[in-house]
Design a protein that fits this description.
The chain has 389 residues and is α/β, with parallel strands linked by helices. The protein has helices spanning 12-24, 37-50, 72-75, 90-99, 111-118, 121-127, 141-151, 182-189, 234-238, 255-264, 282-293, 336-353, 364-367, 370-376, and strands at residues 3-8, 27-34, 57-62, 80-83, 103-106, 130-132, 155-167, 192-197, 200-205, 211-215, 220-226, 244-251, 272-273, 279-280, 301-313, 316-327, 360-361, 385-388.
Length: 389
């Protein structure tokens, strides 16, 4: 079989998605659509250079995802639409895809948006298409590993997911390089983490509950803190079955102390009214400074992901630990963050194209054939190790 895909957003993640779909998604055609013509065109040129002998046809298109009602001609004829644009557009894009009979998945990042998308279940089921939000790295792959571990045990007590995109070594004032969109980073650092504690859903403020943890070289000692969005809908799905489900973001030591100070000073506010009545706008300035000072193009990135599932099988205690350490790929130029986010999502899209995901809008952890996903993940050059004790 061969399939037609549309990728919305022709930036870094969009190009990586199209690349993996062409290599491993049985793609006959992948159309990359962006607001800017030159961005889409350059993306297609890069794909042709990376895959000169591919039978997949790449197309560039212009679209405005803020006007999803205009996308019908672009989406018509595709089996799956993949959104690599900011999460705030995903509800409208879900509706547009379902309306023309396309399955839909996205990189997500905001659980309130995901809940709105899941409200389209009946509409998607009636159209015979599937909607699967939050399919990137975290939320995304981390939740899939958790669900796989839960399914492997008779009873489960605790799940802990820890994930971080890091420079290969601490750099700059934050020991960090910006590996994805500034607004996405600040979304993670704002609000609350939605967890299970003592079997109940709770909200825990972001940037709290600091802990230390150790990863194999070259990463070493790190710290992790609560951030928002990483658990996605898993606390809803597994409430009543687990005592604990939580997620924290991993950084090098010292990072979160500086971030808490910046938040405390109001540096991430859109507008701040001063004592003399003047209004200043800190966030646009900070965005510019972050994008300038935390680029570090000469420093490669890496991704660490650890999911620990504790429970029982056959009346005996069992701990399953899933580990991922991914590096920048010099051959393709894809960063570790691009690879682990986009390739993980591309596999979901391929499962949807093959109709291995049932029609309707379902949470990632309930939608996928987990054993198939885990068996095929190494084919997408994303390698997870599993230790059980």
């Amino acid at each position: 079989m061969s399939y037609n895909y549309v990728v919305l957003g022709a930036g870094r993640q969009g190009v990586a998605l199209a690349y993996d779909l062409a290599r491993h998604g049985e793609a006959a055609r992948v159309t990359l659509a962006d607001l800017y013509t030159d961005v889409a065109r350059r993306a297609v040129e890069r794909l042709h250079a990376l895959l000169p002998t591919s039978s997949c046809r790449f197309g560039a298109a212009v679209c405005d995802v803020a006007r999803p009602d205009t996308l019908r001609p672009l989406l018509a004829g595709a089996q799956v639409v993949v959104s690599a644009v900011p999460y705030r557009y995903n509800v409208g894009l879900t509706d547009a895809a379902v309306a023309v009979g396309c399955s839909f998945c996205d990189l997500g990042g905001n659980t309130d948006v995901v809940r709105q998308q899941l409200g389209r279940h009946e509409r998607a089921a009636a159209a015979g298409v599937s909607v699967v939000p939050d399919c990137g790295l975290a939320p995304g792959l981390g939740n899939i590993l958790a669900a796989h571990g839960i399914a492997a045990l008779d009873t489960v007590e605790e799940v802990h997911v820890r994930c971080g995109g890091l420079p290969e070594r601490p750099v700059g004032p934050l020991g960090y390089k910006l590996v994805f969109n500034f607004d996405g980073l600040i979304n993670e650092y704002s609000g609350v983490g939605e967890f299970l504690r003592d079997g109940r859903r709770v909200q825990v403020p972001a940037l709290t509950e600091l802990e230390e943890l150790e990863f194999p070289p070259p990463v070493g000692r790190c710290e992790a803190a609560v951030t928002s969005g990483g658990t996605s809908t898993c606390p809803d799905t597994f409430a009543g079955r687990l005592r604990t489900y939580d997620y924290k973001t991993v950084r090098y030591p010292g990072h979160f102390a500086v971030m808490r100070a910046l938040f405390g000073l109001g540096c991430f506010e859109e507008r701040v009214r001063l004592a003399d009545g003047r209004v200043v706008e800190p966030r646009p300035l900070l965005r510019t400074l972050f994008e300038h000072a935390l680029a570090f193009p000469e420093v490669r990135d890496l991704v660490v992901l650890r999911c620990t599932v504790q429970g029982q099988r056959g009346g005996r205690p069992v701990t399953r630990v899933y580990d991922l350490l991914d590096r920048h790929d010099e051959a393709t130029g894809f960063s570790a963050m691009e690879r682990t986010t986009a390739f993980a999502a591309a596999l979901v899209a391929h499962l949807q194209a093959r109709r291995l995901v049932a029609p309707g809008a379902r949470p990632l952890e309930l939608a996928l054939p987990l054993d198939v996903y885990m068996a095929e993940l190494p084919q997408h050059d994303v390698r997870v190790t599993l230790r059980e004790s």
